[in-house]
Amino acid sequence: MEPLGRGVVSMSQRTSEGVARILRTEIFSGRLKPGEPMPERLLAEQLGVSRTPVREALFTLQSEGLVELTPNRGATVRMITAQDIVRIYSLRGVLESYAAREAATAREQHHLDALEDAHARLERIGTRGNASEQALADLAFHMLVSEATGNPLLQTIMGQVLAFTVSYRSNYAYPSDRATTVNEQHRAILDALRDADAGRAEELMREHVASSSLYALEHFTDVERVEQA
């Protein structure tokens, strides 16, 4: 395992939550790759913490579907299968369409302002950003939709579901045509939220997630074909 990008953590980060945040970022960025071992001892040494917060952080990441813990083998970054992609995007379709519907009537002006900023960031990144930057900007937009519902439980569940998506999405960047399509879809969803049109927001989000699912599966199939050639 290569040295972690963040190095030794600050005193305020020497908790299981702080360690989990750093490891999650390493996975999202692609620096920790699927199937890569995550030895507790080595992680503790690199981060300058004891093994206890590292162990707790790994359990947290396991619950998010980012890490696999195996007896006598320890922790590894979870490998993603085509079935995983189908399942997670199906779940996203249900949860996020519901969230969009709820957000359309529950949102306040500050939610809309935050979504405008998130959308502007996505447009700025476009194809200039790398895969991780694109994925994290996309994550921010979708999490803001869930926050606009005012439902803390939904936000927690969505955070776990989207974390799994981002761990895969961080492996490939969108080309210009796909980035444009996604930004147009986000814009339409945001407009529906601004208009308080719950039915349209729900429908647009469902279509957006379905489109993202197809693209993710196409990418997965292409990668498998290359690896098996």
TrEMBL record:
Cite the SMART domains for this sequence.
FCD, HTH_GNTR
Asked whether the keyword DNA-binding is assigned, the reply is: yes
* SUPFAM superfamilies reported for this sequence: GntR ligand-binding domain-like (SSF48008), Winged helix' DNA-binding domain (SSF46785)
Q: Which residues form the HTH gntR-type domain?
A: 13-80
Show the CDD domains listed in the entry.
WHTH_GntR (cd07377)
Q: Which UniProt keywords apply?
A: DNA-binding, Transcription, Transcription regulation
Keyword Ribonucleoprotein applies: no
Q: Which GO terms describe its molecular function?
A: DNA binding; DNA-binding transcription factor activity
Which one Pfam family would you cite for this protein? GntR
Q: Which PANTHER family did the record assign?
A: GLUCONATE OPERON TRANSCRIPTIONAL REPRESSOR, TRANSCRIPTIONAL REGULATOR, GNTR FAMILY
**What is the designated name of this protein?**
Transcriptional regulator, GntR family
User: What taxonomic lineage is listed for the species of origin?
Assistant: Bacteria, Bacillati, Actinomycetota, Actinomycetes, Geodermatophilales
